[in-house]
């Protein structure tokens, strides 16, 4: 049985089950020892799904936070601790990949929509076309105004100011992952609001 406080110099000698018990008691050094033991294995599992080191690091941090919050949910009856954490890692990695793929699809659709409108603007010369373009700009502006402020700001900086994700993160003083989430959610909402208009054209 582990002592109430996990000693750093004896951490390597305790079992995984003792470590998870210490994590349940919110002992940070136990989480550090768990990472030292299994971090490389978890990152390998994540990397097989995500394939980008930065993304893999983000997912690994999310997993460690989840283990910290949900350590009490683990039961030895369900299997070894490492198997439980690997399952969590795989699910998190798959969720991240799906979100990224969904974001890329929405971004492509939105860019295609903008390109289509740019082409229309370039070829339209008469007054009726000018009115239509003005209406479209007002429509897009109105749809942007319906988005939450931070999502709208991220889209405007990305697509109208041409900033990269990291530049937006620096400009807004928000974490990179938060910027990506704001763009993903904002583009998804904007695309949904534009879809009926595209179907009518």
Topology:
Blueprint: H1 16-24, H2 28-50, H3 53-70, H4 81-123, H5 127-145, H6 149-160, H7 165-172, H8 176-200
Helix pairs in contact: 1-2, 2-3, 2-4, 3-4, 4-8, 6-8, 7-8
Structural account:
The structure is a single chain. With about 200 residues, the chain is mostly helical. The protein has two domains: about 10-95, Rna Polymerase Sigma Factor, Chain: A (Orthogonal Bundle), CATH 1.10.1740; about 125-200, Arc Repressor Mutant, subunit A (Orthogonal Bundle). About 80% of the residues lie in helices and about 0% in strands. It contains eight helices and no strands. The protein has helices spanning about 15-25, 30-50, 55-70, 80-125, 125-145, 150-160, 165-170, 175-200. α3 (about 55-70) packs across α4 (about 80-125) and α7 crosses α8. The longest helix is centred in the middle third of the chain and has 43 residues, at about 80-125. Residues about 195-200 have low confidence and may be disordered.
**Which structural class fits the helix and strand makeup?**
mainly alpha
Q: In total, how many domains does the architecture comprise?
A: 2
Q: Work out the helicity level.
A: over 70%
CATH class of the largest domain, please?
Answer: Mainly Alpha
Q: How many β-strand runs?
A: 0
Shape descriptor: elongated
Gyration radius, rounded: 24 Å
The chain-level mean pLDDT equals 79
- The SSE string, one letter per element, is HHHHHHHH
Q: CATH homologous superfamily of the largest domain - what is it?
A: RNA polymerase sigma factor, region 2, helix turn helix motif
Strand percent estimate = under 5%
Number of helical stretches of at least 4 residues? 8
Distance between the first and last residues' Cα: 70 Å
CATH third-level topology of the largest domain: Rna Polymerase Sigma Factor, Chain: A
Largest sheet report: none
Low-confidence stretches: 197-201
CATH-derived architecture of the largest domain: Orthogonal Bundle
